[in-house]
Amino acid sequence: MQAPVLVLKDSLKRESGTKVHHGNIQASKAVADIIRTTLGPRSMLKMLLDASGGIVVTNDGNAILRELDIAHPAAKSMIELSRTQDEEVGDGTTSVIVLAGEMLHVAEAFIDKHYHPTVICRAYNKALEDAIAVLDKIAMTIDVKDRATMLGLVKSCIGTKFTSQFGDLIADLALDATTIVGVDLGQGLREVDIKKYIKVEKVPGGQLEDSVVLKGVMINKDVIAPGKMRRKIFNPRIILLDCPLEYKKGENQTNAELLKEEDWGVLLKLEEEYIESLCVQILKFKPDLVITEKGLSDLACHYFSKAGVSAIRRLRKTDNNRIAKACGAVIVNRPDELQESDVGTGAGIFEVKKIGDEFFAFIVDCKEPKACTVLLRGPSKDLLNEVERNLQDAMSVARNILKNPKLVPGGGATELTVSATLKQKSSSVEGIEKWPYEAAAIAFEAIPRTLAQNCGVNVIRTMTALQGKHANGENAWIGIDGNTGVITDVKEKKIWDAYNVKAQTFKTAIEAACLLLRIDDIVSGIKKKQPPGAKAPSKPQVETEGDADNEQIIPE
């Protein structure tokens, strides 16, 4: 007897695809809804409990999503977006999720009407190109040398963060730090490496106002022999080493046969002479401070203190690199290769200070340092962590502007202009793509709408008024003042955004929406855990979207 053949009708197949799309769209919207309330200056904070039982209080989109533990694959890919945004431009982590969620939300209607996802994606990509063209048109270039403008810009970009209540403090710190470590690459390009050369040291205690940018480096170390070595040296000559100043232990078990008892003395003497020769090679260059990443024996310590040289041992490699950048020294791997040019003379003062109950070594007042340390003070660890996150964002914003000194209006004005222009253009789009194109235009309004919601004003009235002002793509600078919810000229209020951040937000959001729309099946490769005693399934099972739908999107 012939086995019955199952014919999948086209409509059935389409149904299953639509179901998957719905599941993905719902998951993405759920993620967007979690952090929707953290957009804008009057936004809510979220309190997160992490795995180790600690708490994080923040309104940084990326920090919140990082802590979430989500099972749904589509939601996971949404969370990746905000991480990408954070690494790429450092700001706009919330906007990108809200925008992507909205793009998927408006696509839902077309999926229901059985539009093919490729058509929707084509329309979205066309909308993205036009949106970037609008950005180019309304962007204005600024002079990065003008400190007041730069300060206003960084301030308006981190105005949505928790630390905005401390005024210019964070903006000042960020600008100072990024200006110090900026390197000119020629042709008007600047490279600012925040990760490598700016170290943020958080020391609980004191007030936030005591935070400073040090023109040099601060490390959590004391000199080796505090009583014998100087703790304050002006214009020190610094030698940086990447080798141990102690006798090398033999490779695994070394056997030495001692025939006479004098041989023992000879052996010890050889060790001492080896260390002495190392120290002599170093002391030839008359250093005031010797820093090594590895160990430094008591004997070497004795020779140094006798010569009046301060020494610090077991320093982190990254810190050593920063000190090298700050004082102009070169890290040397073997003492016999030392040259005069390797000695760092750029530092103004070396000093060991006690802050709280720990000792910190400062190498500061450097001439033209290319690395710096931001010292943050504050009442509690939680507050300091939040300030550090905000400072990272502020430094990223400053870096973006130094790299590409173009501004676009903030406060939702850019999105409204893009939206109005796309609505106009949608009439000239031919064929079936016209409708998804227009929907994408409407989706851009999610950002100003969310801003209005978070200010607590009447959303419908505000949005209608704004759409009226932006009707034909004019009045590009009319937006919402996030603090009061009033419609204002954002140019006067100095509510700006960096061009890089906006462009990246649009690109990431739309490309991600297209990616999720093109998924039509979720096939699970994970074996479901079998309860003991249950018999194994006879054939491999494909998890249908129905199952994926039932899984909780967000953990209780």
TrEMBL record:
- Specify the domain of life of the species encoding this protein: Eukaryota
Signal peptide (residue range): none
Q: Which Pfam families match?
A: Cpn60_TCP1 (PF00118)
Entry keywords, A to Z:
ATP-binding, Chaperone, Cytoplasm, Nucleotide-binding
Q: Which GO terms describe its molecular function?
A: ATP binding; ATP hydrolysis activity; ATP-dependent protein folding chaperone; unfolded protein binding
InterPro entries per UniProt: Chap_CCT_gamma (IPR012719), Chaperone_TCP-1 (IPR017998), Chaperonin_TCP-1_CS (IPR002194), Cpn60/GroEL/TCP-1 (IPR002423), GroEL-like_apical_dom_sf (IPR027409), GROEL-like_equatorial_sf (IPR027413), TCP-1-like_intermed_sf (IPR027410), TCP-1_chaperonin (IPR053374)
The compartments listed are:
Cytoplasm
In the UniProt record, which is one GO cellular component term? chaperonin-containing T-complex
Q: Where is this region: Disordered?
A: 527-556
* Family, per entry: Belongs to the TCP-1 chaperonin family.
As for what it does, the entry says:
Molecular chaperone; assists the folding of proteins upon ATP hydrolysis. Known to play a role, in vitro, in the folding of actin and tubulin.
Per its record, how is this protein called by name? T-complex protein 1 subunit gamma
Q: Which organism is it from?
A: Prunus dulcis (Almond)
